[in-house]
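Mods, move this if it's the wrong board.
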Amino acid sequence: MAFESSNNNNTRLTKLSHISQSLSLSTLWKSIAISGALLFLLHTFAFNRPHKMITHKLFAPLEFTFSSSEISTSSSLQASREPPTNISHLFFVIVGSTKTWRYRRGYIEPWWRPNITRGHVFLEKPPGRDLLPWPQQSPPFIVNKDSSIANAKFKTQIRLFQSLHESFNKANKEDTRWFVIADDDTLFFLDNLVKALERYDHKKHYYIGMNSENVWSNSIFSFDMGYGGGGYALSYPTVETLLNKMEDCIARYLGVYSDLLSFRCLADLGIDLTMNKGIHQIDLHGDISGLLSAHPQSPLISLHHFDVIDPIFPAMSRQESVNHLMKTAKTDQSRILQQTICYQRGNNWSVSVSWGYSVHVYQSILPRNHLKRPLETFRPWKNVRIPVYTFNTRKVTNDPCEMPRQLFFDSVVEDTNQSLVTTMYKVKTAGSLPPCSPNVNQSAGNISQVRVIAATMHKMGEGIECCDVQKVSSSDTLEVKIRACHKDEVLA
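Not the wrong board. C-alpha cells:
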C-alpha cells in the first residue's frame, strides 16, 4: 500500500508539474500580449497626440511639436540613413522693407532659385503699386502682422521674431533643418552655405554666423554675436526653443533690437555662436577689393552692405558687379575668392589669384604670410583708435615692390570634357606700374591679362592649393595653372 500510495503521489506530482508548466507558458504568452498592447498604445499616444499650442501676447498662436531631444531615434542605423542636408532643408527669413525692396531685390534675385529655395521676404506693410505685380524671380513676400503694440520702436524690435515665428509656423518640420536669417541686401552663395551646414547635426542646438570686421561694432554689440547682414543659421531645435522663450526674453531686454536680442536670448539658453569665416557683414566703406583679393581660406558664404561700399568691379554699377561675380559662382562656388599664390622667379614676380575675382602681380617675391593679409583699400565703418579691424591688413603705399598690378575677372569658360574651367582677368583701370628694381626684375606693367586654368569643383576642406605661372611667349598674357601643392612646398 505504501508503494501504491507513493506511485499515486508521483503521478499526481507529474500531472501538477505539467499543469504548472502549461499555466506558466499560458501566463507568459498572456503577459507578452498585454505588454505588447500597452507598448502599442503608448507609442500611438506619444507620437499621435495633438501638438500643444503656445500663445504669445506678442505673436499669433504658435504650434510646437516635440523637439529632437524629446523623441529619440529608433537606432543609429536609422540616423545613418538620413540624407545629407540639401537646399530644400533650408528656410530663409529675409527681413525687408517696402522702402528699400525696389533696388535691393537685385541683391537677392541673383542667388534665389524660384521653386527650389524656400522662405519669404517679410515686409512692414503691403507693397504699393510700384512693387506690383510681384516678380516671380523674387522670394514670395509676407506682411508682418500688426502686433498691436503702440510703441513704434518696440514694433521694430520684434519684427525679426514675428518673421521667424511666422516662418516656423509655415515650415514643415520633416523638411526643415535650418532657418537662415538675413537682410534684404545679403548676397548668399547657396552651394557653399549648404555644404557648411551639412557638417553640423541639425537635430542639436546650433547658432552659426560671424561677427563684424569692425572692432567698434563688436565692442558696441558683441564679439560673440552673429550679424544678420552677413546672415546666420539656426537649427530647427534652436528656433523652437528660442520662440518658446521669446516673450520672456523680450521683456527682459526691452529696447534691445533684432540681432543683439537674438544673441542675448540664445546665450541665456546656453546656445553660443559657432563662427564661420565665409560669412561677411562687411562693416566697411569704400573699395573692398583688398579684402576680396585676400579672402580667408574658407568657402565664401555671404556678402553684405552693397549700398555702402563701392561697386566691387571697376566701371560697373553695384547691380552689374553682383551679377558679374555670380557668373563664376554658377560655375564653381567652392573655389570662388579662394586665394592661390605662386611665383615667376625668372622675373622675380609673386602672383596672387583670388579665383573668380582678381589677380595681383607683384614685382618682388613676397611670402604667403604677407600676401594673405588684405591690402587696406577700404575705410573703417567708424573712425576710431586702432585696432580698427578684427584682422591684419597691409597699408596701401606707392612702393612698386609692395603694390601689385591688379587685374579683375572678365570671363569664364568651362570645358566639361576635360573637367577644366578657365577664367580670364584683365586690367580695368589705366595706370602704369614702374619697375621695383631695374637691375633685378622685369616690370609687370605690360601685363594686361591673366588666364587661370583650374580643375572644376574645388574640393573644400582639403587645404590650400598651389599654382604654376608662365608668360605666354612674348605677349602681354600670363597663364596660371592651379594644382595641388607638393609635399612640404614653401610659398615664399
